[in-house]
């Protein structure tokens, strides 16, 4: 079962199940990216899973199966450039580096072997603002110049 939101955004869906917390979700290029969690009280408890695709076809999940704990699988960092703050959620899968950036704007970029192959902003929606509980459940790390540049 997928989550629906308030009447103003009734068409906005996520790839999270009804029993999961929505840490972040947005629509990009007719697809949905969602960061879903369950029992994630600390980096050592519960799980956090990234999902990309459509409701009827999730193309990619990381980790493949929701496996606790999220520590070292998905990390969070904060970057300030002048008066602009971004919070980045990042992970690696094989030779790919994924980063959800939340700020103004929010979006997703992907690098393969260090080369940028995808960088798109989110469509307008209510789940672009990070659920503040994400900070208790993911390990906070320093920005990584190999990913964050």
Descriptive terms for the model:
149 residues, mainly beta, six-stranded mixed β-sheet, four-stranded antiparallel β-sheet, 2 helices, disordered N terminus
Q: How is this fold's topology laid out?
A:
Elements: E1 2-4, E2 13-17, E3 21-28, E4 31-38, E5 47-54, E6 57-62, E7 75-81, E8 84-93, E9 96-102, E10 107-112, E11 115-121, H1 134-137, E12 139-140, H2 145-148
Parallel strand pairs: 7-12
Antiparallel strand pairs: 1-2, 3-4, 4-5, 5-6, 7-8, 8-9, 9-10, 10-11
Helix/strand structural class: mainly beta
Name the helicity range. Answer: under 10%
Task: Output the strand order for the largest sheet.
Answer: 11-10-9-8-7-12
Helix tally equals 2
Oligomerization status of the protein chains: single chain
Domains (count): 1
Shape: globular
Low-confidence regions: 1-10
The total strand number stands at 12
Largest sheet: 6 strands, mixed
Helix-strand sequence: EEEEEEEEEEEHEH
Task: State the end-to-end distance.
Answer: 37 Å
- The amount of beta strand, in percent, is over 45%
pLDDT averaged residue by residue: 84
How big is the Rg? Answer: 14 Å
């Amino acid at each position: 079962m997928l989550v629906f939101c308030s009447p103003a955004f009734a068409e906005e869906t996520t790839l999270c199940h009804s029993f999961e917390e929505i840490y972040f979700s947005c629509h990009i290029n007719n697809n949905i990216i969602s960061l879903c969690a369950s029992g994630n009280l600390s980096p050592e408890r519960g799980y956090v899973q990234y999902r990309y695709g459509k409701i009827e076809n999730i193309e990619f999940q990381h980790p493949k199966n929701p496996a606790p704990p999220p520590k070292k699988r998905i990390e969070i960092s904060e970057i300030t450039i002048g008066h602009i703050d971004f919070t980045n959620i990042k992970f690696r899968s094989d030779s790919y580096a994924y980063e959800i950036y939340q700020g103004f704007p929010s979006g997703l970029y992907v690098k393969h072997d260090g080369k940028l192959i995808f960088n798109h902003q989110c469509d307008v929606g209510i789940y672009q603002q990070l659920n503040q509980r994400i900070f208790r459940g993911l390990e906070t790390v320093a920005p990584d110049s190999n990913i964050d540049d």
